[in-house]
Amino acid sequence: MTATRLRPSPAHDAPPPYEAPPSALRRGYRLSTAAGHYLLWGAALLVIVGPVVPVAVASLWSTPLYDSGGHPTWFNYQALLTDRTWWTAVGNSALFAALNTAGSVFFGVLCAVLLTRTNLPGRRVLSTLLLVPLALPGLVLILGWAQMWTPAGFASSWLETHTFLSMPVNLYSIPGMALVGISVASPVVFLLCRGTLLSIDPALEDAARTSGAGPLRGLLSVTVPLLRPAVINAALLVFALSMEVLGLPLILGFSSRISLISTYLYDHWVNSSQQGLVSAGAVFLLAAVSGLLVLRNRLVGDTARFTTITGKPTAVRVIRLGRSRWPLTALIGLILTVSVVVPLAGVVLAAFTSILSPFISPWSVLTLDNFSAVFGNPLYTSSLTNSLLIAGVGGALTTVVIAVLSVVAHRSAFRFRGSLQQGMLWPRMMPALITGMAFFWSFAVLDPSGALRASLWGIGIAFAVRSLALGYSAFYPALAGIGADLDNAARTSGATWWTAMRTIVLRLVAPAMAASFVLLFVAMLNDAEPAVFLVTDRTPVLGLTMLQLAATSTGGTVAALGVIQMIITLVVLGAGRALLGVRPRA
Prior knowledge:
By secondary structure, this protein is mostly helical. The protein has helices spanning 22-48, 52-59, 75-81, 84-117, 123-135, 138-149, 154-162, 174-199, 203-210, 215-223, 228-244, 247-253, 261-270, 275-300, 325-351, 369-375, 378-410, 417-429, 432-446, 456-466, 468-480, 485-492, 497-508, 510-526, 542-552, 556-580.
């Protein structure tokens, strides 16, 4: 008797399912990885560069893009180019930018040379004091200048009353505004030139000294000419930033009816609702800034001419100035006291006093009423809350986006990775006003209901794109310092490209991501210009609220807001410096 088999024997089992060879699996992974890279590349360029297209279209359209109908037209450009106030604004902007650039380059280069390559006493303290404006919101320093050094300011009135001295420049003028701008922009020039000075091989100066040149002449004839690329970069950067600045002319130029390009665009958008005309002006401004980048490449020329390090350089040598070092220290200290210490003290005094006057002792009018007015006003508290949300949530999400795009741009074989690298730097050359306008028109076209523009997400996206280059500049050096052999080892062990990036590379650059988040948080908290075209009554933000308030009043309330903004910025930067070594940078 035999038993009936219920199952076929192993020899007659059904064949196993087909298993692709390892090469086919790797080919499938490559296809999926490449598809992910293309999707990221397309989405990134669409969000970063794409919004500029609606601005150009709006400048050539007869009606606003959110209205039906309309037709192509050159009328907006004709109206702009035939408007005398526009050309007045262009001339004022060019003059302001030229004065600001010349003063910032002169003082920044001078401080970089003296505080880096000489034995100037107290150079560490002076360097730290010079960099303070980079760590604080620019609007706070401008408010301090208005409180202290305007014709009716506390410090200028006190000097005229108690001494024979007086403020030589009227701040309610283009030279006066340029003087304030120099205090904000010269630290940028200092940082750019300081890095170059530290990288120059002192052996070149030694060669000049063997030919009979003294230490100072060797510095001036050899080292200073090698600063040309850094000086040109700094000068064009300051000039471009001067063309787009909004807070300074609104606060100091408003009372004297001094119009710059930025205030012209702001006024015709907010008060006149001439969106087509403003869009044409924005295209003009963007073209001017793009032309500056082309000019920069022509002026610098072949950068190989400025190469000085081909091996291991010797240590930087300090040049002894002799007796002249003390007068130079006193001069730089006086300038920094007038331009940094006194304005910041003015903001603090105005915030904690009921009235700031040289004829009344500040100690007799101390009060916390200005802070009570801030926290008792729903507009101010909403602005503060919204800005903290945008800076916190938006900064974290932007940090993740920067990390992902950076590994695609620098750690992959993606064929368009070069354009992705340039795309992340693109927002740095685009004026902030144009960034806000670009997203306004983009939201108007893609979301006619206005729900996205009327939300914090819309403002957060604009702020994120505006600050993208800053976070990328902080993140990329750490990524470049990690050898590719680490993720290659994971790939040879069977990990996909995305797995290698996620489990190895991004974990190793986690401190750099944290540093990028700190810088993004500060930048997005203090930003104002992009919100001009996006903010609504339900979505006020701190920077724009302060700017609008300061344009009509520089009293205690706006000073209290400035102190709150300054405290938040310093706390975040201090925490980042203590935990991660984050330092403010240009």
